[in-house]
Sequence to fold (159 residues):
Amino acid sequence: MHCPFCRHEDSRVIDSRTAEDGASTRRRRQCQSCSRRFTTVETVALAVIKRCGTTEPFNRDKVVRGVRRACQGRPVSDGQLTVLAQQVEDQIRSTGAAEVDSQEVGRAVLGPLRQLDEVAYLRFASVYRSFDSIEDFLKEIAVLRGPGQDNHMEQDKQL
Fold:
């Protein structure tokens, strides 16, 4: 770690503390050359493996952009989308893996999005799961309605 003041390469850690609910470590350091103190924050890098095989850093804003399209025209605020993206990141980081598949990110979005807005969930799921027919939508709606709602499905089919 280079000293931000004199650029010397050697520093001594004086104090270490976890920050951001354990997602990062805050270290207080002292330069061995100029004796000035500075703070560093260390986080574990989280990478996403895309379908094509390339790897890129996890980006919470990218999650928000993807979910925002599904929420278009729905009563969902930017603050709620930010919270959802944080929940997704927390869920993925809790696995302890340094690299996750993009499909895993999509699966992590589904739960919080379903709690936030069922219509947005259905829109997102239709793209994420590549729905091919109306039957795919009907099956997912049946899951959303739950086990006691089958009679409503039959009524809807008759209409």
